[in-house]
Amino acid sequence: MVREILKKIAxxxxxxxxxKILFFFMPFLLIFLLTFxxxxxxxxxxxxxxxxxxxKKEIAGYVNSIDYDAVSKYGQxxxxxxxxxxxxxxxxxxxxWRSQIDMDRVKRMAxxxxxxxxxxxxxxxxxxxxxxxxxxxxxxxxxxxxxxHTYKGIYSFEYKEITEKGADYEYRYLExxxxxxLEDYSKLDAVIYQExxxxxxxxxxxxxxxxxxxxxxxxxxxxNITSPFGWRLHPVLGVxxxxxxxxxxxxxxxxxxxxxxxxxxxxxxxxxYGRTVILDHGNGITTLYAHNSExxxxxxxxxxxxxxxxxxxxxxxxxxxxxxxxVRVNGRPVDPLGNFSVGRVQINAADNIDRKMIVxxxxxxxxxxxxxxxxxxxxx
Length: 380
What we know:
Helix content is about 30%, strand content about 35%.
């Protein structure tokens, strides 16, 4: 009897303490559950795992159905198809993560983001020797893929000319030997600006006005072009590739100047380019200055036309001191000797947080990380 009474007293005391603890932590618990529910609803975890299943299926189905004409000899085009994840992420941010999508916008964005292919014509030569000593010559025209422009950047292909010889034949052709990549999000940035208009992180704005005008010459101490724009035999590697700019012969340590007002989007080592500066001049125009010995600017700096940005050198993949100079329009390299003039424009000098967030989201969805795993990893 006494034992039962003691048990009831103990239970009641425990309940009173539990109620106090529960009431104290209740507000925090409600906030946690609310936040957790929002996160789960956005990223499709927990009870709403299937919320975007049909949406993803529809977008992925459309993007994967886009036809790419593989006209190159080696059919490399098939390896550079547009990722459905980037189109899905853009649509989700554009519509506020609702399950109702705008397929017209999806198609418009996919059209703008799909890869563009550049080719050069090459003629293979095949010679067959007959028993009588006669030569039968055949010329075979082929398309050689030189560049792929994707939303992530530009892939440039390298080829080596091969001559195979046998007892009764000879065959000359180009064989792919490598691929160079230069990160360039111009295509994606244009879509973000056009379709989202700063809805994701529009408060990260640092607008500056660029006066525009006619492009200056980037190397005041020299005008000798040692290698022009276009298809060429690389002087270091001995392979054929597309030269995306011009090489200007200048002495070591010569000044390199900004050809227009601009914002520094990159300043540092860049693979075979060595020490490189990339400037954004607005209206989709960027310029690149490579192989420098010393850089005088840093990322997000605002520079004016004619201001010093670097000293020339021979860093990276180079045979000697020179300036490699490029002009890109919406990410596509164009001949820098063209007559370029840029209008007055306002651009954002800050980092594009919108793009970083969208790219990370797209990569997470492509890997199947549509839940808290993506959030945890992105915050590490």
